[in-house]
Design a protein that fits this description.
6-stranded mixed beta sheet; 7 helices; alpha+beta; 3-stranded antiparallel beta sheet
């Protein structure tokens, strides 16, 4: 008799935990960018589901230059040897920068995180129907979940005061209505809020990216103007 497997679908038609390969396959077939993995126990699957998929599934490395407007990428200052990006002196390189983009508001939304030391895109999610503020909130929580297991000091930069406040209060206070169209997004929001309520991330510092002084956050999608 085959051993019971549990299948976590992070990105698919309906994200969740499935008890058969057939049910899992129904969520990922023809779904672009599907992310999933099998586990031997339900407990392991549940732990993975409420964490970042990047901890379990290796994602192809992508350069920030492929996603952002190339004209914004210049050489780092001569006094900075800890990063390949043009970061101001006061910005920590051992950090993630996160950002979201939305075509219309609401509309197709995506978010991502960039490692400031190397310029590498660490995670990218979407597009999914939503709002920019929700994307900024989810991007921060995604970064927190990714960094949390390492238990060492780290920094996350976000240019969204609203999203940072939502994370602090552990509640995504969006006015977007919850309906059939937005249900997949609200399932992600529910998961993010549960994560915030059940994890201590005091070893991670969340800082506001000072756009007026420093320019666009390095995770910016380069679609303004």
């Amino acid at each position: 008799m085959a051993k019971q497997k549990f299948y976590v679908v992070w990105h698919g038609v309906e994200p969740g935990i499935y008890e058969s390969w057939a049910d899992c396959q129904a969520q990922i077939k023809n779904f672009k960018g599907a992310v999933y993995k099998s586990f031997d126990t339900f407990e392991a699957a549940e732990e993975a589901y409420y964490s970042s998929p990047d901890l379990y599934v290796k994602q192809p490395a992508q350069s920030v230059a492929k996603k952002s407007n190339p004209t914004t990428l210049v050489a780092p200052p001569d006094n900075r040897h800890d990063t390949v990006l043009p970061l101001p002196a006061s910005v920590v390189a051992e950090a993630l920068a996160v950002d979201a983009a939305c075509s219309g508001n609401p509309g197709p939304m995506e978010y991502r995180g960039v490692y400031l030391k190397t310029g590498q895109e660490v995670f990218h999610f979407g597009p999914v129907y939503g709002t920019n503020n929700i994307g900024e909130f989810l991007a921060i929580v995604h970064g927190l979940a990714l960094l949390h297991p390492h238990k060492r000091p780290f920094t996350i930069y976000s240019d969204s005061r609203n999203a940072m406040l939502w994370v602090k209060n552990k509640k995504c206070k969006t006015a977007l209505p919850r309906n059939n169209k937005t249900e997949p997004l609200f399932e992600l929001i529910d998961r993010a809020e549960r994560w915030l309520h059940t994890h201590d991330w005091s070893h991670i510092t969340l800082l506001k990216w000072q756009t007026k002084t420093w320019g666009e956050v390095p995770a910016d999608f380069g679609r303004k103007g």
